[in-house]
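Hi Prof. W.,

I finally got the Type-2 restriction enzyme RsrI prediction working! I wasn't sure whether to trim anything, so I left the full sequence exactly as given:
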Amino acid sequence: MSNSKLLSIQQILNYETKGSNYLNINSSKQEKSLRDVVNTLLSNLQQKYPNLSFELKNKIYLSDIASEINNFENETFFSPIFKTTFISPDGGFLFLVDNITNKKYPILISEMKYQGSNSSFKGNAIERLGKNVIALRNYFINHEILPFVTFCSGPDFNPSKSKIIDRLSTIACFAPLNKINLFKYGSINPGSYFCREEEW
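And this is what came out:
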């Protein structure tokens, strides 16, 4: 085996033993920070609006998302392969609950993504984000808003080091980044994406 191939394998092993641990630790720290912020927001909302009810859920099942599509299209055609599969954004799903009908209105869905430290592994976090955004756009198919916000950080979000930011722009339907995009632009429902190299 050539020295170059041995070097490439060693670089991957080094990443898996060092780089991935760093990414996991760093991501976990930022995810916990986001959950703390959402819990503080929930507490503030409950204090400010004592006559309203709020609920924070960790996950939404894909079957619930498919039901939203069926309701919108007046169909029964749409269904996930597995009924137990779900999406679980880092900050969860924050709902406003109608006390009379018990209907729940999502008002905030939040994610934290860290991307970087090794060029061979660029894009993984963003690709996972893209999967969730597809699901959430379908979940909000009958709404005029998408109250979804993602905070991205890491070396890959420095335009001088990586073009990963273009993948994020694609997920955002090319709407402006680092800006709140709550409402639809015609039929486009981009969501809000904030990115920088430094940690949030």
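Residues 3-19 have pLDDT under 50 and may be disordered. Does that look reasonable to you?

Thanks,
D.
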